[in-house]
Amino acid sequence: MANDLASFHKFLKSKDCQVILVLCGAGLSTSSGLPTFRGSGGLWKNYNSMDLATPDAFLIDPSLVWQFYSYRRYCALEAKPNEGHFALAKLSHKVSKCLTITQNVDNLSARAGHNRQKLLELHGSLFRLKCTNFTCSHKEFNEKHPLTPALSGTEHEFANSRKRKAKELEATTEVSWESDHEPSSDFTPIKEIPDTELPICPDCKDAILRPDVVWFGEPLPLSVVDTVDEFLVRNKVDLMLVVGTSCSVWPAAGYVDRVRQQGGKLAVFNTELGTLPDGDDVHAWHFLGDAAEWLPKALAPLCDGPEQSSCQTNDAA
Ligand code: BJW
Fold first, then answer.
1. Half-sphere exposure at residue 112, Cβ-oriented, CA atoms within 13 angstroms
2. Which pTM does this prediction carry?
3. Is the CB of residue 221 less than 8 Å from the CB of residue 124?
4. Alpha-carbon span 92 to 88, nearest angstrom
5. Cα-based angle 227, 229, 230 (whole degrees, multiple of 5)
6. Whose CA is nearest to atom 49 of ligand 1?
7. How far apart are CA 198 and CA 209, in angstroms?
8. DSSP element (H, E) containing 266
9. Which residue owns the Cα nearest ligand 1 atom 22?
10. Are strands 20-24 and 239-243 parallel, antiparallel or unpaired?
11. What pLDDT digit, counting tens, does each position of 25-41 carry?
12. Please, are residues 103 and 22 in contact by the beta-carbon 8 Å criterion?
């Protein structure tokens, strides 16, 4: 059912579509200018983002990992939600039984006005900080940049923006910008920042803060996992939107299987085919291309105009 908007709209408007679950990944934010994790976007100064998003990396080199996250925070603050975020935000206000699970930590769904009670940040947020001292429960929401004077200068990956543009061009055209005789190592230098100059916990004043994100091997926030479980136990999901995710990280990917097992239908919004765990379903809708372009079109019957679906339109989750 590749790109079959007509049959998707028919289902959205039918009585069979009462409960909607949305799973979002990095591809939702690419047209806002934020990179994905896997593939050509997932490098920062020649480090693989996946290697830096680990508790071990932070334990070994908190200065390096903080500079990576300071850069990510800056990019997310500069970015603007795109039409995909806005379409999902509208959906969250129009459809009573819907829940969005985002793996993204960029805060763009919240900034697009998504109903906060129906938005779960499965992998945390770049803008929440928590103390690394196990005996301290300090947590804060903080959008300041830079977080400390030592973290200034982390705004740009490259020393000059022309090279960054060249890297982006390379990612889209597969042309190597090194063939232009540009040096490939012209990154802004990585500093060695002592712990005392990294963000320090204002409560215990003893330990450094870390981004409140979920790194590999770490448990997900219990309240979030419980909320998803409760939603899946209480409701039979009729439709799951799988948006801009490689479905390669668990437990997020497992939610797709759970919906499949319940007999729910899937709609995949991705620039690539073959991203669903255990292969793509022939019965799923595949909207191949930029999620920011497809989502407003696909969700129009629920989000735009006077047309109403059988889905109720109040905000009680
Ligand atoms: C577009 C597009 C456009 C591009 N439009 N589309 C069961 C089986 C096997 C392994 C495990 C298992 N359970 C747990 C594990 C281990 C592990 C895991 O999943 N490993 C896998 C590699 C196999 N999971 C964990 O460790 C999790 N923890 C856990 O399970 O704990 C259990 C526990 C219990 C009790 C005690 C202790 C432990 C934690 C996972 C945390 C993931 N964290 C990260 C980093 C977050 C912080 C940060 O942002 O820095 O989350 S990793 C990274 O991957 C990030 C993302 O949220 C996540 C998913 O990536 P996503 O969003 O799918 O991005 P990409 O790049 O992979 O894909 C982008 C997609 O978009 C692509 O498909 C493109 O085609 C597409 N796209 N442009 C539409 N314009």
1. 26
2. 0.91
3. yes
4. 6
5. 65
6. 105
7. 8
8. strand 265-270
9. 249
10. parallel
11. 999 999 999 999 987 77
12. no
Residues 6+ apart with CB under 8 A from 81: 32, 89, 108, 109, 111, 112
| Alpha carbon separation from 108 to 5, 122, 268 (Å, rounded) | 26, 14, 20
Residue 208 clears pLDDT 80, i.e. is over it? yes
* Alpha-carbon torsion, ordered 181, 184, 187, 189, to 10 deg: -110
Fill in the amino acid letter for 305. G
Ligand 1 close to Cβ of residue 246 (< 6 A): yes
Q: If you measure from the C-alpha of residue 26 to the centroid of ligand 1, how many angstroms do you get, rounded to a whole number?
A: 9
Q: Which amino acid is at 101?
A: I
Query: Is the Cβ atom of 271 under 6 angstroms away from ligand 1?
Result: yes
> Is 123 among the catalytic positions?
yes
| Other beta carbons within 10 Å of 36 | 20
- Residue 96 phi/psi, 5-degree rounding, is -70, -45
Instruction: Return the closest-CA partner of residue 240 out of 266, 261, 262, 276.
Output: 266
Rounded to whole angstroms, what are the CA distances from 33 to 81, 118, 184, 284, 298?
Answer: 10, 25, 22, 28, 22
- The long-range contacts involving 305-310, CB below 8 angstroms and separated by at least 24 positions, are 307/13, 309/12, 309/13, 309/14, 309/17, 309/95, 310/13, 310/14, 310/15, 310/17, 310/18
210-242 pLDDT, tens digit per residue, is 999 999 999 999 999 999 999 999 999 999 999
What is the rounded CA–CA span in Å between residue 14 and residue 265?
13
Give the pLDDT score at 239: 97
